[in-house]
Write a structure and sequence with these properties.
Blueprint: H1 3-20, E1 25-31, H2 38-48, E2 54-60, H3 67-77, E3 81-85, H4 92-101, E4 107-110, H5 122-130, E5 136-140, H6 154-171, E6 183-186, H7 187-193, H8 204-211, E7 218-222, H9 239-252, H10 258-285, H11 296-320, H12 329-359, H13 364-386
Parallel strand pairs: 1-2, 1-4, 2-3, 5-7
Antiparallel strand pairs: 4-6, 5-6
The structure holds guanosine-5'-diphosphate and magnesium ion (MG).
Length: 393
Amino acid sequence: MSNPDLAQLADFAQRADTTTKPLELAIVLPTFNERGNLASLVERLDDALAGISWEAIFVDDNSPDGTSDEARKISQHDRRVRVLHRIGRRGLASAAIEGMMATAAPVVAVMDADHQHDPALLPGMLKAVASGEYDVAVASRFAEGASTEQWGRPDRVRASNIANAIARKVTGVELSDPMSGYFMLRAESLRAAAPNLSGVGFKILLDILATSDQTMRIKEFPLNFAARAEGESKLDRTVVFEFLVGLYDKWLGRIIPTRFALFGTIGAVGVVVHMAILSAFLTLAGEGLRGNVVTNFELGQTIAALVAMTFNFFLNNALTYADKRLTGAAALMRGWIKFGVTCSVGLLANVGVAAVLVRFGFHEYPAALAGIVIGSVWNFALSSKFVWGRYGT
Ligand SMILES: Nc1nc2c(ncn2[C@@H]2O[C@H](COP(=O)(O)OP(=O)(O)O)[C@@H](O)[C@H]2O)c(=O)[nH]1
Ligand SMILES: [Mg+2]
């Protein structure tokens, strides 16, 4: 037998061994439009994890580029690769949690599917966690020996630093990169924390650390954070914002749901915009329209309402629904019209409730307030379904 044959045989034996060996590690890879990155990533996992019995779970939120089809194609030939295809859902945190809950492996890792996270760190991380010496292994972009130079995004390094500083303050966890998206822990610890995880935006690692009862023993692994291979970042702009939303969700989200709080806050700002436009209009219009069929007030009120509604639509699209943001002129136009229709229904509910309350003898202002609250709840419920929800596009 020649040497290459021997090498092949050894390779085959090792593979056979890892398919009969009990599963040791699951790597959860949330994806949204990552089609071009999958095949090469599986190859890199295969290289990095030689001798380890692993599976990879792609959790795809129905990416329009067909990422899930690509993942299924790979999976047909490689059973270590699995696909969780979610419909009508968006969000990195919930994708990671659901992926980690979908495996029988005793140890689970989460990493990006865009090649920013180097799979070569996985065996070391596994050793730290599987031995029981540590509870969590974190690949850190900011630990001693790590680098973010290849990333080429100093703006995002700064944003991450700010978020990390706040994170360290509020959780008391001393970690160089609590917002890291690349980490590993025992599946058992994850399952214990799962019922109390927020699953909204919030960087999932921080959520796990803040949720778990005992103090986690953490080992950091310096990561050379690369530029993404193909496609574009979905999370850009929103890191710090997402983080603040996550904090809110953790502390108050159970009392007033996070999205509703955002929607309501934006609505309140919308009222200010409305009043500003109305007063500007009334000042500028002066006596001009006096005596016409439409009064200054009626015209001003209509313009202000349209502007405020448009303002609310765009702000909600950018912030409240950042994770399901509508993009492109056609989708935005459709969304804007649907939002307008939704708000008119909300207005009817608002006025209806307030009028009934006044008839029952309530004072006008509390009645108006009740109308506003009911109208907002209505707007929120309807628009989250029809504008940004699964029926939205
Ligand atoms: N399932 C799922 N994955 C997502 C979503 N948003 C981002 N991802 C994936 O999460 C990983 C990190 O996202 P990315 O856009 O690279 O964020 P960045 O690294 O912070 O710029 C990538 O693998 C994305 O494809 C989402 O809404 N759902
Ligand atoms: Mg990325």
